[in-house]
């Protein structure tokens, strides 16, 4: 059993079907379905009802997802504990930052910003993902990223923000209660 399989199953439970879940977690429906098929094969249980147009959880799948939610909450709690002890860096040493796509309208970071960050923080591997603003926020809510930069206020009340000033992005958003290693703008 892989945690990603349980996360996909939970996404199906949360979003009401494989296609909707796949959209929400930014993978193909085939990836979600395949992961759940592996769970079904491993545990000899039918988790999805595939008879309708949209594959949805079977009654056994709903119970499996309910139990998976408990496991995922415990894993999330462990991650939060580890992050609280490591200045917001994931246990694997990565700091995942989602930033908005500018689509050719300039750069969010200066050319040497990343190198400067690496020199200042050699113990941290910085992953910067350029995504649409809505995806930046969703990545935080789903626990995919550690922080996000946006030019808009978050619409989700579980996110908190910090204004970065006129030269940089308008805000850095993190899940409420998180500590991060710092917010960097392009100044």
Describe this structure in words.
By secondary structure, the protein is an alpha/beta fold. 43% of the residues lie in helices and 17% in strands. A five-stranded mixed β-sheet has the order 4-3-5-7-6, sandwiched between helices. The chain has a two-stranded antiparallel ribbon with strand order 1-2. It is elongated. Strand 6 (159-162) and strand 7 (171-175) form a beta hairpin. It has helices at residues 3-15, 18-25, 29-43, 59-85, 113-120, 133-141; strands at residues 48-49, 56-57, 94-100, 125-131, 147-150, 159-162, 171-175. It starts with a helix and ends in a 12-residue tail after the last strand. It is built from six helices and seven strands.
Instruction: Calculate Rg over CA atoms.
Output: 19 Å
The assembly state of the depicted protein chains is single chain
> What is the CA-CA span between the terminal residues?
45 Å
- The averaged pLDDT comes out at 75
Strand content: 15-25%
Largest sheet: 5 strands, mixed
Order of helices and strands: HHHEEHEHEHEEE
Structural class: alpha/beta
Number of helices: 6
Number of strands: 7
Task: Report the helical percentage.
Answer: 40-55%
Query: What overall geometry do the principal axes of the alpha carbons give?
Result: elongated
- Read across the widest sheet, the strand sequence of neighbours is 4-3-5-7-6
Q: In terms of per-residue confidence, which ranges show pLDDT below 50 for 5 or more consecutive residues?
A: 166-187
Notable features of this structure?
two-stranded antiparallel sheet; elongated; alpha/beta; disordered C terminus
């Amino acid at each position: 059993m892989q945690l990603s399989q349980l996360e996909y199953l939970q996404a199906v439970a949360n979003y009401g079907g494989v296609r909707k879940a796949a959209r929400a977690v930014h993978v193909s429906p085939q990836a979600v379905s395949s992961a759940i098929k592996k769970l079904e094969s491993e545990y000899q249980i039918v988790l999805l009802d595939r008879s309708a147009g949209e594959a949805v959880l079977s009654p056994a799948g709903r119970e499996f997802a309910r139990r998976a939610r408990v496991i995922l909450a415990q894993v999330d709690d462990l991650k939060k504990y580890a992050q609280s002890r490591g200045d917001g860096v994931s246990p694997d040493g990565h700091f995942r930052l989602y930033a908005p796509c500018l689509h050719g309208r300039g750069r969010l970071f200066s050319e040497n910003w990343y190198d400067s960050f690496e020199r200042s923080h050699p113990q941290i591997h910085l992953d910067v993902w350029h995504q649409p603003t809505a995806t930046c926020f969703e990545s935080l809510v789903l626990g995919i990223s550690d922080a996000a930069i946006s030019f808009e206020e978050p619409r989700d009340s579980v996110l908190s923000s910090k204004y970065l000033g006129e030269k940089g992005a308008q805000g850095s958003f993190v899940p409420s209660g998180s500590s991060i290693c710092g917010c960097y703008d392009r100044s």
